[in-house]
């Protein structure tokens, strides 16, 4: 293993949440008077924090989202997760191999802590991630594509950025990892490879990741 720390994005990498979360977001924004398709949501918001949604609506429409937007979006998203969320196929085997090999790992996500932990409990991935391995955009001043979150995770986990690899499935996440001076493996199960330009490696099946990490 040539890395001291493997940093996982959460949504779409550990849990198969992107289709659910983007469907909820698109429906809610449309309900509020900002017509948004599922494809629009994926293109504009996938991988970003909730602040990105506020900023985009403000820039495009000159309007502010309701004060209760963040909490209502979380409630609706968690309800969808409770009904349908599943872990990404093969990720438990990857985590087990890292643990058995003594390789440090963590999750660094644009999502809020409450959403990350709920998703892990719902899918059974909480056994792999104690609180010391979970980092959120809530912990830093700027979310992806800024490098702050990944640099914060590496600092807490006591790993040099150049000895870290990030596993990401969003363009914003790839940009953030590269800005942090880290290698990044782009997961193309949902995102076209062309949108993850700049990634160190690309892979489409989580079963491939273990082999990539050893190479």
UniProtKB/TrEMBL annotation:
<protein>
    <submittedName>
        <fullName>HAD family hydrolase</fullName>
    </submittedName>
</protein>
<comment type="similarity">
    <text>Belongs to the HAD-like hydrolase superfamily. CbbY/CbbZ/Gph/YieH family.</text>
</comment>
<dbReference type="InterPro" id="IPR023198">
    <property type="entry name" value="PGP-like_dom2"/>
</dbReference>
<dbReference type="InterPro" id="IPR023214">
    <property type="entry name" value="HAD_sf"/>
</dbReference>
<keyword id="KW-0378">Hydrolase</keyword>
<dbReference type="InterPro" id="IPR051600">
    <property type="entry name" value="Beta-PGM-like"/>
</dbReference>
<dbReference type="InterPro" id="IPR036412">
    <property type="entry name" value="HAD-like_sf"/>
</dbReference>
<keyword id="KW-0460">Magnesium</keyword>
<keyword id="KW-0479">Metal-binding</keyword>
<dbReference type="Pfam" id="PF00702">
    <property type="entry name" value="Hydrolase"/>
</dbReference>
<dbReference type="GO" id="GO:0016787">
    <property type="term" value="F:hydrolase activity"/>
</dbReference>
<dbReference type="InterPro" id="IPR006439">
    <property type="entry name" value="HAD-SF_hydro_IA"/>
</dbReference>
């Amino acid at each position: 293993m040539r890395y001291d720390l493997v940093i996982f994005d959460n949504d779409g990498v550990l849990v198969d949440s992107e289709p659910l979360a983007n469907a909820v977001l698109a429906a809610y924004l449309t309900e509020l008077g900002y017509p948004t398709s599922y494809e629009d949501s994926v293109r504009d918001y996938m991988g970003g924090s909730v602040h990105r949604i506020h900023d985009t609506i403000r820039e495009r429409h000159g309007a502010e989202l309701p004060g209760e937007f963040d909490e209502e979006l979380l409630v609706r998203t968690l309800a969808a997760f409770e009904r349908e969320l599943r872990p990404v196929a093969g990720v438990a085997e990857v985590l087990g191999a890292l643990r058995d090999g003594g390789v440090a790992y963590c999750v660094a996500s644009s999502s809020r802590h409450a959403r990350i932990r709920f998703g892990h409990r719902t899918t059974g991935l909480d056994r792999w991630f104690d609180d010391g391995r979970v980092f959120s955009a809530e912990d830093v001043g700027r979310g992806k594509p800024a490098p702050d979150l990944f640099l914060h995770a590496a600092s807490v986990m006591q790993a040099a950025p150049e000895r870290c690899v990030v596993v990401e499935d969003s363009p914003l996440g790839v940009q953030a990892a590269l800005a942090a001076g880290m290698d990044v493996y782009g997961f193309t199960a949902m995102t076209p490879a062309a949108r993850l330009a700049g990634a160190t490696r690309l892979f489409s099946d989580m079963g491939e990741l273990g082999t990539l990490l050893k190479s």
